[in-house]
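Hi support team,

I submitted a single chain yesterday and got back a structure, but I'm not sure I'm reading the token output correctly. Could someone confirm the output below corresponds to the sequence I sent? I've pasted both exactly as they appear in my results page.

Thanks,
R.
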Amino acid sequence: MTQDAQAAVTVPRLHEFKQQGRKIVALTAYDFLFARLLDAAGVDLVLVGDSAAQVAAGRESTLPMTMDEALYHCRMVRRGIRRALLVADMPFMSYQITPEEALRNAARFFKEAEVDALKLEGGAAIAETIHRITRAGMPVMGHLGLTPQSVRKFGGYGLQAKDEGAAEQLRVDALALQEAGAFAVTLEKIPAELARRVSAELEIPTIGIGAGPDCDGQVLVLYDLLGLFEEFRPRFVRRYAELGEVVRDACRRYGDDVRAGKFPGPQESY
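Hi R., thanks for writing in. Yes, this is the structure output for that exact sequence:
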């Protein structure tokens, strides 16, 4: 890894990456061990996603995630990161009620978990909230397209912004987030051509997930990438390992050895 690659990733550096045409690499993490591995692998941005509610806690959606749960995961991840930018999802209803309450909750992430930035879902409707938080010195990333906290409204996790009107609204929302002070915006599960146009129009970086190859960076849920989460597999996921089966096989072999009296052996005994 070069000296430049080892330098800490900051919000200004992400803007430099966009200007240089250097793709931004982002993944989720929820604990110290995986955070340390991702940081060592050179990941630029580590997101403590509210997806933890599903992949780590077994819930059906991201909606049940609480502030205390989110802060707990962030504190663990913080200890594993030296280089990457640490971004935290603000949980459902922690920022939607009033900008003042959102500001108080945002501050907790910086004071109690020492995150580098936050991510909020929504478009122009939350622009004032983003402006309040960023004006207080706390960087914010936006999130448009398929916003999982709105899954009840969408009726599922389908492709968003499919028609011309919805596509134009997403473009307007992206510009509103930029104007409000967002340093980047996640584009989830939208047509690739729309993501290309929005990425070209914005001055801030776009991070895609199911939004085609022309975003300024890409993010995936780590447990999807590793083949650990097997409940469902979105089309936009590429699995780089199948660790679910590796873990099952290792545990089966351990169980066989224990039952057969082969573990522990002399080398594991004192």
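A quick pointer for reading it: The chain has a mean pLDDT of 96. Let us know if anything else looks off.

Best,
Support desk
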